[in-house]
Amino acid sequence: MARRRRGAAGRDEEFTFVSPVVKYLLFVFNFIFWIISLVMVSIGVYARMMKHAETALACLSVDPAIMLMVVGVLMFIITFCGCVGSLRENICLLQTFCVCLTLIFILQLAAGILGFIFSDKARNKVTEVINRAIVHYRDDIDLQNLIDFGQREFDCCGGITYTDWSQNMYFSCKDDNPSRERCSVPFSCCIVSKDKVVINTMCGQGMQQLEYAEAGNHIHTNGCIDKLVNWIHSNLFLLGGIALGLAIPQLVGILLSQILINQIKDQIELQNYNQKHRSDPWS
């Protein structure tokens, strides 16, 4: 009888509420994003070192390299808590990981709702950023490539209209502007025909001096703001899918961490129970 009781007690001690599947699935989940965070920080540091100092990209309100480093460091800390917390079955680290993910998810949701409600203010902010980027167009090759890419992809020119390029010191139409690009627009504004063998890279020369209709025969006269808004309206399902793709990993991390926390708590209660009832009157 005593042997049977001792055998049962041994089986109780071997039993655990903590599921290895949940534990190591959460670890792998965090480890993948931990590696991604290291890559993000490395790219941010490399980009910052290549720039050496403040550049024209500062006109974008936030330096992309610094933003990448900040996001990477935060992501590194959060996923580190998830990795160590899942392996060590540490409730404190797991709760920190769960709370951080929940706060990030709530902030993202709030930002999306506020951006939808205050769309006019968001549009004005985007317009300011684009205008500042136009001013610094020739100051940084990365910014220049970014603007050219946007104008080619959306078939647009400037922020509101093609004459916005007069804000740039090289393309300004002021009489005292000695630049050879006076009253011109970048080549990325031009309407390029696929039938032409030889492309005229100077097609934007003097376009700001022409009337809207006449300029429209050679360049895209509509601004990028309206084109961007129209693109967003016509690709709401795509943007919704991207938002859902960002939200699902966060929700999965929150769910797995909460399940593991509850399992660890149940295991602690079991251990406390076994500790209290360790003395067996039949032994």
TrEMBL record:
Which Pfam families does this one have? Tetraspanin
The organism of origin for this protein: Amphiprion ocellaris
Q: What is its main location?
A: other
UniProt similarity note? Belongs to the tetraspanin (TM4SF) family.
Taken from the UniProt record, the cysteine pairs bridged by disulfide bonds within this chain are C156-C189, C157-C173
Give the UniProt keywords, A-Z.
Cell junction, Cell membrane, Cytoplasm, Disulfide bond, Glycoprotein, Membrane, Transmembrane, Transmembrane helix
Question: Which regions span the lipid bilayer?
Answer: 21-45, 65-85, 97-118, 236-261
Indicate how the chain sits in the lipid bilayer.
Answer: Multi-pass membrane protein
Q: Which CDD domains match?
A: penumbra_like_LEL
Q: Which GO terms describe its biological process?
A: pore complex assembly; protein localization to plasma membrane; protein maturation
Location comes to: Cell junction, Adherens junction; Cell membrane; Cytoplasm; Membrane
Query: Is Transmembrane a UniProt keyword of this protein?
Result: yes
GO CC terms: adherens junction; cytoplasm; plasma membrane; pore complex
Q: Which InterPro entries match?
A: Tetraspanin/Peripherin, Tetraspanin_animals, Tetraspanin_EC2_sf
Name assigned to this protein: Tetraspanin
Record keyword Methyltransferase present: no
- GO MF entries: enzyme binding
